[in-house]
Amino acid sequence: SSGINAEWPLRPGVIDTTISLERLSVLVATLHLFSNNETIDDVSTETIKFMLVNAFQGFVHQQHYDFENRKAHVLAAKEYFKDFHHLCQLYGLAEKTNFDANRMTNPVQESNRMEKIQKYQDKKRLETLLEEMENRTHVEEEVQREIYLSLVKLWVMRCEEELYNINSELPMLEHMEKLRGGLVKQRPIIKPKVMKPFILVKSELQKRVFGAGYPSLPTMTLDEFYDEEMVRMAAEAERQLNQPKPVEPEDPDEETEESLGKARAWDEWKDTHRRGEGNRHNRS
């Protein structure tokens, strides 16, 4: 069977499933089922399915939605998904990928968009192939091997998607953690001014008709609505006019009428008086 799928309704059994997968993971590591010195062709058919243990562990940890411990489970899921992907890389079932890149800081380029479309098509093809093979009444070992390999490849795609999603979720969880700890202040929510609903009609006759059907809502004609808007706009314009204008600081270099008058009087006095006159100190 396809094992755990993305729609698995596991809410009641999350803890038990987590413990069971942890025990299975220990057994897989103890038995040394996988090695760096072999290829996928060297792995037996019945052993291939155990490659999925870490992927299932990551998926189960993502189903823990208790708010207080959400970040810890997301981090655990990230490590399990990365271990699974690394194992698949060793056997040539996955390509080396930088999962520390966040989509929010790495805009989607055209090549990435085409790659995502191709992966989506490959994913749907694998899902269809798995469904066809699993519905067979008799499955030979060769077909069973193909089922396991297709399932691993399908989970590689899911794993890559989930790792990018985790990188987008972690900053939000860290921010919420700071909010709870009082390290950052939450911005006040500014409520927009809500306009009361009313029925807008074209004529006085329509006003009487619609007003009778909806007595709780005010009804006005287009002319009344226009008049009301004009009154509102006039009041707003008057309010702006009555606001005191800001006092601009005086410019010491700016020439005023008084300063110009003083300058002219000084020039005229210099024209009629010689330099030093009036300051002779009783000298002839």
Instruction: Report, as a whole number of angstroms, the end-to-end distance.
Output: 129 Å
Number of strand segments: 2
Task: Enumerate how many helices there are, as a single number.
Answer: 9
Instruction: State the helical fraction.
Output: 55-70%
Chain-averaged pLDDT: 77
N to C succession of SSEs: HHHHHHEHEHH
Structural class: mainly alpha
The gyration radius over C-alpha positions equals 40 Å
Shape: elongated
Q: Main β-sheet: number of strands, strand sense, barrel status? A: 2 strands, parallel
What report would you give on this structure?
The chain is mainly α. The chain is built from 9 helices and 2 strands, in the order H-H-H-H-H-H-E-H-E-H-H. The chain has helices spanning 14-31, 45-48, 53-62, 70-90, 110-134, 141-181, 204-213, 222-242, 257-272; strands at residues 199-201, 219-221. Strands 1-2 form a two-stranded parallel ribbon. Helix 1 packs antiparallel against helix 3 (53-62) and helix 5 (110-134) crosses helix 6.
